[in-house]
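Following up on my earlier thread - several people asked me to post the actual chain instead of describing it. Fair enough. Here it is, all 109 residues.
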Amino acid sequence: MHSMKDHPYLAIWEFEIQPECRSQFEQTYGPDGAWARLFRRSTDFFGTKLIRDLNRPGRYLTLDRWTSRQAFHSFKQAYAAEYAALDQQCESLTEREAMVGEFEEAPAK
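Reply from S.P.:
Thanks for posting it. Predicted structure:
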């Protein structure tokens, strides 16, 4: 029997940034950045990956790994004030931000 930990939930976000914001953006949204530090308050958070598009400069995706969708949404409710404050603080780093979607790893057959 597979546990949920075998197939974690992924929240994927897309960002477009200005070139001059690159290093600060990468620092803030990377695996040890401000967002990851906030998420690490939850034992259900597995880590974040920041990937950049090689064909479209300034386009990034973040992949936030959690035990489940419920865990992520519970965290957002529990830390709503901190989440909103950090979101506002980071607004100047991004031109555009959109949730790509909520995903789950497909079990190996």
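The mean pLDDT is 92. That should answer part of your original question.
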